[in-house]
Amino acid sequence: MIDALKKHGLLLGLIMGIARILRCNPFVRGGVDPVPDKFTIFRNPHPERYEDEVIAQAFHTEQKAKKG
């Protein structure tokens, strides 16, 4: 939520942060979900494009593990 506030400002960041917290439950697919550059209340559709190498690498590792 802090990243959403920093990236999108108080109002949009608060809305986005609350949506992200609500997604944090056992009924939603887990995994890497960095804050996207454009405002949305949905999951980041392209976490592999995230600027942080560690998060992008974690996404690719997760995808390889799913493929088996």
From TrEMBL:
SMART domains according to UniProt: Haemolytic
One Pfam family linked to the record: YidD
InterPro entries given in the database record: Membr_insert_effic_factor_YidD (IPR002696)
Protein name in the entry: Membrane protein insertion efficiency factor
Lineage: Bacteria, Bacillati, Bacillota, Bacilli, Lactobacillales
